[in-house]
Amino acid sequence: MAYSWFKAFHIIGVVVWFAGLFYLVRLFIYHIEANQEPEPAKTILKNQYQIMEKRLYNIITTPGMLVTVACAIGLLVTVPDYLKQGWLHFKLGFVALLLVYHHYCSRLMKQLAEDRCKWTSKQMRAMNEAPTLLLVVIVMLAVFKNNLPTDLTVWVIFGLIILMAVTIQLYARKRRLDKEKELAQITQVPQEQA
């Protein structure tokens, strides 16, 4: 019975953790893009994003991570034989990368608050894809364990994930170009009137 409780809360923790990670980096993108706004909008937006980032990181993302890790330890205590299986070693390696990513987000949040972040919004969008890739690999390892399929279905699913990521990037690029075009038209109108 303890195994089922640990597993249920482990899954809940994973969902909460990833929801936080996905949205946190999205806020970083908006925070960076706020630098392009005129005053006072720039300051107002940056202050608001800073508050949202801190709350998201401290109230949702980090507690989700802690529940995930604590329940994973509980699962390993109840079924210690998992520690002898190769798939778990790979999964734990990817989870370690995710933990590094999580703590790096904290560092970026501090840099953004101090106006020291050197990342562009485009680079941050690419960074936002990392947890998605880690999630796919971790879930596949957890579900299939040592029998990870390598047939056509897997490659189709992998291709769809890549297509989704590319589509998101292209849409973001289109939005950015549309916004630049709109700003150029706005600045051109007052010059023509002068």
UniProtKB/TrEMBL annotation:
Keywords: Cell membrane, Heme, Iron, Membrane, Metal-binding, Oxidoreductase, Transmembrane, Transmembrane helix
Membrane-topology descriptor: Multi-pass membrane protein
Major place of residence: membrane
Pfam families for the chain: UPF0093 (PF03653)
Enzyme class (EC, first level): oxidoreductase
GO biological process: protoporphyrinogen IX biosynthetic process
Source organism superkingdom: Bacteria
Entry's localization field: Cell membrane
Keyword field contains Iron-sulfur: no
TM annotation in the entry: 6-25, 56-80, 86-105, 126-146, 152-172
Family classification: Belongs to the HemJ family.
HAMAP family given in the database record: HemJ
Protein name: Protoporphyrinogen IX oxidase
Species, as recorded: Chlorogloeopsis fritschii PCC 6912
